[in-house]
Design a protein that fits this description.
Number of strands: 14
Strand content: 15-25%
Helix content: 25-40%
Oligomer: single chain
């Protein structure tokens, strides 16, 4: 399985690719994976600790809202924390780990600061690499296994690490920057809309990290046929527009779209991008990211 790369969105292109890679650094032009199954909604204001822990090459944040669960791969009601790891400084060369930069002791201490129901609380992992990172296939696998094992030793149920390689200039410090501002940390990020389309205002620091500071997220619920030219039912189109309008975002703010599209062909991506751009532009907003 190869390491997927993340394509940043800069106005005309907006796709984030997720993968459950555990075996190295590579690149692929495959379509993005489907978003995780929708968990049961989290009602009301969040409870428990909301302060993230930031270490030398990692940040740990509690998973507290339904929106965050929609944005994290393989998430669900038992999702407790997400670990963001900077993979770039972890390698001295393709086959030599930089153990000091790894800071497993700090990671272990940070994980212990969060409440855990042993055997139930789930920990998620996102390892971020700059495009030029000099890591071997086995080296990336070792990183994944080490952080997953550290969480398991503390009592969490670890998921397989998701690895992202960034095009262009990448700075982990910038990625996790929103975690240093606790404004909105206890917001419930409640959805508006209906059973066909739900929209969320991005309020919490973790959601700002996961969306790269989008203003809102539109979750289009029905399974859609990406192989058909007329692939958006009229009632879905109406619900999407209405949900976006209910967000009352300022003009020019960014939107991330989540869709379920199991049937695809070579034209699917173009169809989906065009639709999302149309929805965003119609509301005076910017199309930012797409996940399906």
């Amino acid at each position: 399985m190869t390491l997927m790369k993340k394509l940043f969105v800069t106005g005309t292109l907006a796709v984030t690719v997720f993968t459950g890679l555990a075996f190295g650094l590579g690149h692929s032009a495959e379509p993005p994976a489907a978003p995780p199954p929708r968990p049961a909604p989290v009602k009301g204001a969040v409870q428990g600790p909301t302060a993230p822990v930031v270490g030398k090459a990692f940040a740990i944040a509690p998973v507290t809202t339904d929106l965050q669960r929609r944005l994290i791969r393989s998430s669900g009601p038992d999702s407790a924390v997400v670990v963001l790891m900077d993979g770039t400084p972890l390698f001295k060369d393709p086959v030599t780990l930089n153990i000091e930069a790894f800071d497993l002791a700090g990671l272990r201490k940070g994980l212990k600061s969060f409440p855990v129901n042993k055997g139930t609380s789930v920990a998620h992992f996102e390892v971020h690499y700059a495009f030029f990172t000099d890591a071997s296939r086995d080296g990336a696998n070792v990183v994944n296994l080490a952080i997953e094992g550290t969480a398991r030793a503390v009592g969490f149920v670890p998921t397989s690490a998701s690895n992202t390689t960034h095009n262009g200039t990448f700075a982990f410090e910038n990625l996790i920057g929103p975690l240093k501002d606790d404004s909105g940390a206890r917001d419930a990020e409640t959805a508006v809309g209906d059973e066909r389309a739900r929209a969320y205002l991005v309020r919490t620091p973790l959601s700002r990290v996961l969306t790269e500071s989008a203003g809102g997220v539109v979750d289009i619920c029905p399974l859609l046929d990406g192989q058909a030219d007329e692939w958006i039912p009229a009632e879905v189109d109406t619900s999407v527009r209405a949900a976006i309008e209910k967000l009352k975002l300022a003009k020019g703010e960014r939107l991330t779209f989540l869709l379920n599209i199991p049937k695809r062909d070579l034209k699917t991506h173009e169809r989906v991008v065009n639709a999302c751009q149309r929805w965003a532009k119609g509301a005076g907003l910017e199309y930012w990211q797409l996940r399906y």
